Write a sequence for this structure.
């Protein structure tokens, strides 16, 4: 059995908070997320407790350990047709298709169950691997957000990317 096959994709649980807190703080992960080194475990628990019906978070689990997370938040009101997406995977499990599987599961949910027409995300301009992953999944660059994120002591740019589904494509 390959590492790809042994990974379970499932909905996030409150008891995943500590594992997710640790992953988000890892070198090689924190630089590409919006997490801060000062994030406390209790804050992670609170954020998971506050998820509602518009938040769809999935984790990847291997051998009983959480190794990644992806989330889709559906817009409300006039933005109900759209959602925003994020993903991160533990440093030692990056490059093994786990992020792809998490995103594919959320995109399936978006396409077949939520009927979303637009999904957007941002990615640091320097994170070429993540940008290529998103492009493989149908995302296109819409623009560059200049100096949008502080990371490692400097201002960094992000790509704003989106994936669209036209009504006629369904």
């Amino acid at each position: 059995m390959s590492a790809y096959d042994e990974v379970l994709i499932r909905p996030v649980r409150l008891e995943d908070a500590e594992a997710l807190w640790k992953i988000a703080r890892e070198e090689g992960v924190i630089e590409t997320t919006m997490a801060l080194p000062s994030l406390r475990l209790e804050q992670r628990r609170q954020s998971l407790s506050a998820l509602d019906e518009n938040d769809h978070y999935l984790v990847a689990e291997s051998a009983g350990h959480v190794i990644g997370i992806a989330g889709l938040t559906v817009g409300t009101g006039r933005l109900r047709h759209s959602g925003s997406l994020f993903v991160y995977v533990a440093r030692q499990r990056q490059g093994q298709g786990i992020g792809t599987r998490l995103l594919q599961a959320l995109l399936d949910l978006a396409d077949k169950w939520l009927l979303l027409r637009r999904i957007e995300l941002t990615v640091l301009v320097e994170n070429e691997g993540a940008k290529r992953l998103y492009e493989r999944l149908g995302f296109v660059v819409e623009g560059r957000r200049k100096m949008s994120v502080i990371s490692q002591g400097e201002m960094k740019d992000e790509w704003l990317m989106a994936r669209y589904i036209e009504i006629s494509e369904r």
In short: The domain at 8-122 is CATH 3.40.630.30 (Aminopeptidase). Residues 15 and 69 are 13 Å apart (CA to CA). The chain has a mean pLDDT of 92. Residues 98-112 form the longest helix (15 residues).
